[in-house]
Write a structure and sequence with these properties.
DNA polymerase, domain 1, Alpha-Beta Plaits, single chain, UmuC, 3 domains, 5-stranded mixed β-sheet, DNA repair, alpha+beta, Dna Ligase, domain 1
């Protein structure tokens, strides 16, 4: 389907984990709920809208959330329940289209250019999905309707919670122009600062600059900025997105040095390898070639080191050995301490493709 004719939804459950807790425990309704384990090492998984009024946000250290909202009710996360509700929601999506791209347990893109239901418009489809979610899960969802993915995601956040917002093709340019440039995907705080130094604060400011100037300043990213300012995004909804990485990580009660991390790395390698084996045995049948070590320092800086060995790891033990060896590539003082370590595998390829390439390398023709 040509990008110009697509009809895309972005559906986002409202304060999902916290809303599930409030649904299942009526005593929590209307109160500031923080889904997190208590303690100095914990981070917030989700916050109810009542807690958000105090500035509590996901990924915030739990101790900071408690300072911001002393009356917050902390509830430990129950991912088994959240996944069960997420499956319910996905089943509702699937009644309307097979083109579903999940982003997490609580949000997804849907291509509803052509639907199974024959509803007259993308807006009607979004309304039907939201109504079914409310009726069948007793939860609310917000939705954005737009000609492409990045606009649909902006739209779903426009009338939260429990809202619907539509950006029609003829409205795109006028809608985007006054938005802060930070609303564009890929424009984080660092890029926002660089753009501000050039006098670019809004999407309209980006559009006013020539493509040539943006490319001179930012290379290929300059072209992407130019396209986004015009509302152009040709990325299609990708059902059953292939796994990019499997990993396991842990936050410690007390910060550790690099030398003290080995037993934790080996334990996490077992978990990451088990996830990798499930991927290899699934319908996707894919295996990974790259080992990743992730560290978070005591002052919250995140470091990653990766290695693609000539021979891919074939066991949890090999994965652990390679991940431990990656510590030697961390160029920090020996006394540096770390609050988190993670072990992962990435660089996935199809099993059949990998075997064919290996055989060709080991047994070249002639």
């Amino acid at each position: 389907m040509p990008p110009a004719t697509r009809k895309i939804l972005h559906v986002d459950m409202d304060a999902f984990y916290a809303s599930v807790e409030q649904r299942d425990d009526p005593s929590l309704r209307g109160k500031p709920v923080v889904v997190a384990w208590r303690g100095a090492r914990s981070v917030v998984c989700a916050a109810s809208y009542e807690a958000r009024k105090f500035g509590v946000r996901s990924a915030m250290p739990a101790v900071r959330a408690e300072r911001l909202c002393p009356k917050a009710i902390f509830v430990p996360p129950d991912f088994v329940r959240y996944k069960a509700v997420s499956r319910q929601v996905r089943e509702i999506f699937a009644r309307h289209t097979d083109l579903i791209e999940p982003l997490s347990l609580d949000e997804a893109y849907l291509d509803v250019t052509a639907t199974k239901t024959g509803l007259p418009s993308a807006t009607a489809t979004a309304e039907a999905i939201r109504a079914a979610i409310r009726e069948e899960t007793q939860l609310t969802a917000s939705a954005g309707v737009a000609p492409n993915k990045f606009l649909a995601k902006i739209a779903s956040d426009w009338n939260k919670p429990d809202g619907l917002f539509v950006i029609r093709p003829q409205q795109v340019l006028a809608f985007l122009a006054p938005l802060a440039v930070g609303r564009l995907p890929g424009v984080g705080k660092v890029m926002e600062t660089k753009l501000a130094a050039l006098g670019i604060a809004t999407v309209g400011d980006v559009r006013a600059r020539s493509l040539q100037e943006l490319e001179q300043q930012f290379g290929r990213w300059g072209r992407r900025l130019h396209e986004l300012s015009l509302g152009i995004d040709n990325h299609a909804v990708q059902p059953d997105r292939p796994t990019l990485q499997v990993s396991a990580e842990d936050t410690f009660e007390h910060d550790l040095t690099l030398d003290e991390l080995e037993p934790h790395i080996r334990r996490l390698a077992e978990k990451a390898w088990a996830a990798h084996e499930r991927e290899a045995q699934s319908d996707h049948g894919r295996i990974a070639r790259t080992v990743v070590l992730k560290l978070k320092t005591s002052d919250f800086h995140t470091l990653t080191r990766s290695l693609t060995p000539s021979t891919r790891p074939t066991s949890a033990l090999e994965l652990a050995d390679l991940a431990c060896a990656l510590r030697a590539r961390v160029e920090r003082p020996a006394e540096s301490r770390y609050r988190l370590v993670g072990v992962g595998l990435s660089g996935f390829v199809e099993v059949d493709s990998f075997i064919a390439q290996r055989d060709l390398f080991e047994n070249p023709p002639g």
